[in-house]
Design a protein that fits this description.
It contains nine helices and 14 strands. The chain has helices at 3-31, 37-61, 70-107, 121-146, 187-199, 222-225, 252-269, 307-311, 328-337; strands at residues 152-160, 170-175, 203-206, 234-236, 271-273, 277-283, 286-292, 320-323, 343-346, 356-357, 362-363, 375-379, 382-386, 404-412. Helix 1 runs antiparallel to helix 2 (37-61), helix 2 (37-61) crosses helix 3 and helix 3 runs antiparallel to helix 4.
Length: 413
């Protein structure tokens, strides 16, 4: 090992130990003479050891070499542990400054009164600090255990005056952001697919991000998602993660081979992948168009989508649905240039997998980045629905913003 590599191993370990030792002082003060203090201390330092060992493993073999899906969970526990202890450190650091000032004042004044009775100030502050750290710690752990696969089945009805009568009541299941590379369980996926099939929709539209980076991430889940059924099948399009843009490839050819395999996976699934294309659906002599473009996002996100190409051949179709992974595309190009695209379906944001949603409050950090980040939006006669995502990425859970399977019913009116 060279010196630089050793430094990147040793320095983080020392920093973690310093943080944990400082936070441990609050734990000791809070626990006091509690009969189970030895168990508490053992658990505390076991979590420290887990954090250090995990970081060493990630540094030595690389995050992506950790067994499929487990890297996200291990990384999340490490981050949650460090964040919670930093809460304690920041809380106690302010108290230590105050204590130091009080000590100086005490040295310059008369002796302080006896404060030996009852709970000490150190114990009180230690317990407050631990409670302050336990709240985010418990919340994030709960989000991983209880919410990662807690699918919400949302029903949305949208009225359109120009919808052909033959398609009145047409039901769409929208899925988005599967991110198969993050899964570690199969049973919830099997149950979700079975539930979707029982809904007996007219069509299933998947709006991108099937994988995190590598097409092989789908290998363990092909036998699940190839069971998806709807009267008119499954149409899909690509998201920003599907191209392997965030992975390190040894060559351009290797990256191209990965994307070719990704396309072949859609064929094996029986999904119709629309890459700047459209499909015309007919019923009783009437038509609607499904347009699907490759990923197009504002800012640093890839812009593979070519709506002008995908749109060709739909000019005379009275009703159009666009599948475009990134909702920023709606304001950037769809609405200004294609006023006859009636409904756009997107995903991408995940609702940040964190926020508050109830009948009084709807908030997520996503709103700081995306004007349209979840649910149904309308501008004039055009609608956009942003799906909160089926899977998860990075943090292997969800808090407040739960995974979503959406049934959209088109109504003439």
């Amino acid at each position: 090992m060279d010196l630089r590599f050793l430094v990147t191993l040793i320095v983080p370990t020392i920093v973690i130990l310093l943080i944990d030792y400082y936070a441990f002082q609050a734990v000791k003060a809070a626990v006091g003479d509690f009969s189970y203090r030895r168990i508490v201390f053992t658990l505390y330092w076991c979590l420290t050891a887990f954090t250090i060992i995990s970081l060493l493993i990630f540094r030595l073999i690389g995050f992506k070499s950790v067994p499929h899906g487990m890297g996200s969970y291990i990384g999340a526990i490490v981050v949650i542990n460090l964040f919670s202890k930093l809460v304690i450190v920041l809380f106690m650091f302010g108290e230590d400054i105050t204590r130091g000032i009080r000590w100086i004042i005490a040295k310059l004044s008369s002796p302080a009164p006896d404060a030996s009775k009852g709970i000490t100030r150190s114990q009180f502050l230690g317990r407050v600090a631990i409670i302050s750290a336990a709240i985010p710690f418990g919340t994030f752990i709960y989000g991983m255990i209880a919410n990662a696969y807690n699918y919400q089945y949302r029903k949305v009805t949208v009225k359109f005056p120009n919808l052909p009568e033959a398609f009145n009541g047409f039901r769409i299941i929208q899925l988005s952001d599967i991110h198969s590379g993050s899964f570690t369980r199969t049973e919830p996926l099997i149950q979700a697919v079975d539930h979707i099939n029982k809904m007996d929709a007219d069509i299933i539209l998947f709006t991108g991000d099937l994988v995190n980076n590598i097409s092989d991430e789908m290998a363990d889940y092909m036998h699940i998602f190839d069971k998806l059924r709807a009267k008119r099948g499954v149409l899909s399009t690509t998201g920003n993660h599907d191209y392997g843009d965030y992975n390190h490839w040894d060559s351009v050819e290797e990256k191209k081979a990965n994307f070719k395999k990704f396309i072949d996976i859609h064929k094996a699934l029986g999904w119709d992948l629309l890459m700047n294309e459209n499909r015309i659906l007919e019923k009783d002599g009437q038509q609607i168009a499904i347009i699907g473009i490759e990923n197009w996002g504002k800012g640093h996100f890839s812009k593979y989508g070519k709506l002008d190409v995908a749109y060709k051949g739909t000019e005379q179709i009275p009703f159009k649905i666009l599948m475009s992974h990134d909702p920023s595309h709606w304001d950037a190009e769809t609405r200004p240039k294609y006023g006859d695209i009636d409904l756009t379906l997107a995903g991408h944001t995940h609702g940040a997998q964190f926020g508050i949603e109830n009948k009084w409050i709807k908030w997520s950090p996503s709103k700081w980045v995306y004007k349209q980040w979840a649910d149904l939006y309308q501008e004039g006669k055009q609608y956009l629905y942003v799906n909160r995502g089926f899977g998860f990425l990075g943090y292997p859970g969800r808090i407040g913003i739960l995974p979503e399977i959406t049934e959209i019913t088109l109504v003439k009116g």
